[in-house]
Specification:
By secondary structure, the protein is α+β, with helices and mostly antiparallel strands. 40% of the residues lie in helices and 16% in strands. It contains 7 helices and 6 strands. It has a 4-stranded mixed beta sheet, with helices on one face. Strands 3-4 form a two-stranded antiparallel ribbon. β5 and β6 form a beta hairpin. The longest helix has 21 residues. The C terminus is likely disordered.
């Protein structure tokens, strides 16, 4: 865990910058500051504490319940900033948003962005959501005789259980063939296709990428033969955080 004596508090007038990141998704949740006292309390309790020049010392989630359980703390190369990887119990932003940086921060990688797009398709099928940025791309050149956009490919898969399960089998077979042939380029393409169709099928079963991440996190800890986070049990990671 982080050695607090190695941090440069003087550069920031007694404070270091803290970048708080969701340990499962990689999404940046917020940026705040902390002094040594706040970091000592963080280490002692296993939950994030910060220092604000206006609020003073504050425990994230003390009032709202949206605490942030610490997974790891790491200093940057200059020692004046800290990366805090956490398991959030709720939104990080005072507005109620998951991240202070909005929806864009939640797609921490291309896989997360793809998962979010599929989730929007699920919401659109239920009739309770609006189309998001880039949604029209799926419908390009695919319109009904009435001129209205036809259902996107993802929506067609979501609406046809047999089709989406069939596609997983087809894409898996194509990936096996590419790997057997030693064709790296084709294997990457087929792997991408399989991941996409698997995510759609998971959403069709009510499972998200974050659910898969939780399972992987639990398995990683079991494989290490110990709980890597001194404050969080594997069971807590598996169950996820309450909202």
């Amino acid at each position: 865990m982080l050695d607090l004596s190695t941090l440069d508090y003087d550069k920031g007038g007694g404070l270091v910058t803290v970048v708080t990141q969701d340990a499962r998704s990689g999404a940046v949740l917020m940026v705040a500051h902390a002094d040594r006292d706040a970091l000592e309390r963080t280490l002692a309790t296993g939950e994030m504490h910060y220092r604000s020049r206006t609020r003073g010392l504050w425990h994230k989630g003390e009032t709202s319940g949206n605490v942030q359980r610490v997974v790891s703390l790491s200093a940057d190369c200059d020692g004046d900033a800290v990366l805090a990887r956490v398991l959030p119990a709720g939104p990080a932003c005072h507005t109620g948003a998951v991240s202070c940086f909005g929806e864009d921060a939640l797609g921490a990688d291309v896989l997360g962005t793809l998962d979010a797009t599929i989730a929007r398709r699920v919401t659109a099928r239920s009739g309770s959501g609006e189309r998001g940025p880039g949604d029209a791309d799926d419908d390009a050149g695919d319109r009904s005789l009435t001129g209205e956009p036809a259902p996107s490919y993802t929506q067609r898969l979501l609406g046809d259980r047999n089709l989406r399960l069939k596609k997983i089998g087809e894409e898996a077979a194509e990936l096996v063939t590419a790997c057997a042939d030693g064709d790296a380029s084709r294997a990457a393409e087929e792997g991408a296709d399989l991941l996409y169709h698997a995510l759609v099928a998971l959403h069709g079963a009510g499972v998200t990428l974050d659910d898969v991440r939780r399972v992987l996190a639990t398995r990683a800890e079991r494989g290490a033969g110990r709980v890597q986070n001194p404050w969080t049990t594997a069971g807590e990671i598996r169950r996820g955080s309450p909202t």
